[in-house]
Each structure stands twice: as structure tokens, then as C-alpha cells.
Amino acid sequence: MKGLPDYHVHTFRCGHAGGRSREFVLRAIERGLGEIGFTDHIPLYFLPEEARDPKLAMSEDQFDGYVEEVLALKEEFRGRIAVRLGLEADYAEGHEEALARWLERADWDLVLGSVHWVAGGWIDDPATSPARFEREGTDRLFDEYYRLLALAAESRLFDVLTHFDLPKKHGHRPPSPRREAEATAIDSARRTGCAVEISSAGLRKPVREAYPEPRLLAAIAASGVPVTFSSDAHAPAEVGWGYERTLELARSAGVAEYVTFERRRKIPHPLPT
Fold first, then answer.
1. How far is CA 175 from CA 77, 142, 167, 211, in A?
2. CATH number of the domain enclosing 210
3. 20-40: burial string, b at 16+ Cβ within 10 Å, e else
4. Are the beta carbons of 112 and 7 closer than 8 angstroms?
5. Domain tally for the chain?
6. I need a labelling partner for 113 at 20 to 30 A (CA). Which of 79, 103, 185, 189 fits?
7. Secondary structure of residue 126 in the 3-state scheme
8. Could you read off the pLDDT of 95-125 as tens digits, one per residue?
9. At what angle do helices 63-76 and 21-30 cross, to 10 degrees?
């Protein structure tokens, strides 16, 4: 894993992560990573204020402090590890202009694009998603998820698409792969130059499988979509976690290189041998 980035790292501000931000950086150095990207959850700009859960994303009054802290860490650790300023931003159809205004507020290194809100609710909520899949149908929810993921890429607001097959998180899968919907999302990423993360986070979830699954990652690699690496760390111990497995997954899927980001510019690197 030496030299690889971890581009999906949260802070306490999102309401479901813990640990001092500096400890995340020290863990990345300890694990031999080349870069760490703080990409905390943007405020839930697409929901009414009274519906914004403080356990899911930072509040608006925490935003400036988040940017200032990451920039300070970038300076503190300059020469030891590259600290990147990023954001995980949910894509919400019809709210693209509002998101664009948020993204104008800082000079980002990278912006992660996520889809969590699908057909009027959270697709990965452990309390509600099982009933949703049973009531609304696995095929329908997976298809809608991939439709929104394709739109996220088409919006050109994001540099990386996160947890590409997120709906499987709690073990829900369609009877057969939704190949047409998947292919549309992959093609949108290819045409817009959007990268896809190889995330070890799924290995810690009930599904016990990285995002994206091997079959999907092979299709992504074959299409020429660039990839990068992440852990979706919510605690310092999770930084770079599971990289031995995701690096092997990348090799077996035919991935030859990965990308890093600086001021939203993609930089290619050969996959470690």
C-alpha cells in the first residue's frame, strides 16, 4: 500500500465519526500512505433545515472551520504526507445549482460524489432500508440508484464517484445484476472523466465485500474509467484499512493505474507491483 492515497476520510463534524483529525493523518503516515484526503459530508443542502440530521453530515456553521482545519493540517504535515482538502457531497437531482454554490466556497483538491438519497429516502439506512427493498423492489431501487449515479457523473460537479454499488451494503441484491443500469453509470463516468473509488469500507459492512464488487470493478477497468483508493474512515484506525485486499482486487480486475488529485487535477500513477 506504500504511496497509495486514502481519499475518503471523515471528521467528527459529520456526527458519526470520532477521533482528532490530526490522528487520522498520523495513521496514514504510519501505514505508508502517500496522501490523505479529508472528504467530510457536506451539509444536507437539498433537505429542509428541520430535516437535516446532525448525525449524518456537518451543519452549515461547521463548514468554514472544517476547511480551516484541513488547510492547517496540510501546512503542518507538508513534506511528510500530502493532505488534500476535499468534500463528500451528495448528489440530489434538481439541486445542482445549490451544490455548485457550495463548491465555490473553497479551493478543493477533490470532490467525492455520493448517492444516498434515492426515491425519497436513504438507500443505506439500516433502520429503514430493509423494509424499503421489500416494499419497493430490489430491481427498482438498484436501477434508480444507478440512474442517479449516472446523473451525478453527468453533472460534472464531482471528481470521484463513491461506493459504486452502495445499495448492497446490508446484503440486498437483485436476483440478477442490473447490467443495463450499471453500464449507463459506467459510461457516464467514462465520458465525463469521473473516477471511481475502490473502497474497503464494504468489507466492514454486513455485505462483507468491497465497493465495487469484482465483476463491476472489472467492467469499470475495461471501460477505461480511472480509479483511486479509499477506506471511508470514520476513526483513525480505519485509515488505509483493508488495502491489502482492495489492492489485490484491483490487480485481479485488470486495473493498471490509479489517480490522485491536486486542485481537482487528475494525476495518474502505475499500480504498485
1. 48, 11, 14, 19
2. 3.20.20.140
3. ebeebbbbbeebebbbbbbbb
4. yes
5. 1
6. 79
7. coil
8. 999 999 999 999 999 999 999 999 999 999 9
9. 40
